[in-house]
């Protein structure tokens, strides 16, 4: 693995670990993003997604599990798109800066998915 590949993996680990910790430590910030069609309580989904992000961070951090971890992270980034769509819809009436931030999260999922796939593919290089 080249230093650039290793750095990219470490940055992805940091993003996933930071997001996971935020979901667990400050779940109220994420509860309203949980789509209504999901069964159960919003807080349960918020905590579950935080734990999933922490587990993904751990998988990407370990070279032996980086490839499946990176691919799982890519799938996770795609799977949480409905939460970002819900946030953008719910924030239609917010001030422009907040609304723009909510809208920006939607296309941001594409480079996150591609980044995670790249980290997974670069394991053997």
Structural account:
The N and C termini lie close together (5 Å). Helix 1 (3-25) packs antiparallel against helix 2, helix 2 packs antiparallel against helix 3 (66-79) and helix 4 packs antiparallel against helix 5 (96-121). The chain has one domain (3-124). It has helices at 3-25, 42-61, 66-79, 81-90, 96-121. With 125 residues, the chain is mostly helical. This is Putative membrane protein.
Distance between the termini: 5 Å
Order of helices and strands: HHHHH
The number of domains is: 1
Number of strands: 0
Oligomer: single chain
**Total of helices:** 5
Largest sheet geometry: none
* Strand composition percent: under 5%
User: How big is the Rg?
Assistant: 15 Å
Protein name: Putative membrane protein
What is the gist of this entry?
This is Putative membrane protein. The protein is mainly alpha-helical. It contains five helices and no strands.
Secondary-structure blueprint:
Elements: H1 3-25, H2 42-61, H3 66-79, H4 81-90, H5 96-121
Could you list some keywords that capture this structure?
single chain, 125 residues, mainly alpha, 74% helix, globular, Putative membrane protein
């Amino acid at each position: 693995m080249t230093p650039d590949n290793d750095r990219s993996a470490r940055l992805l680990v940091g993003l996933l670990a930071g997001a996971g910790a935020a979901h667990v430590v400050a779940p109220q910030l994420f509860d309203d993003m949980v789509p209504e069609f999901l069964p159960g309580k919003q807080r349960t989904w918020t905590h579950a997604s935080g734990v999933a992000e922490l587990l993904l961070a751990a998988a990407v951090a370990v070279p032996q599990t980086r490839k499946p971890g990176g691919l799982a992270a890519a799938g996770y980034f795609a799977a949480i798109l409905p939460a970002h769509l819900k946030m953008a819809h719910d924030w239609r009436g917010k001030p422009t800066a907040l609304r723009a931030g909510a809208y920006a999260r939607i296309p941001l999922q594409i480079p996150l998915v591609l980044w995670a796939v790249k980290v997974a593919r670069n394991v053997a290089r």
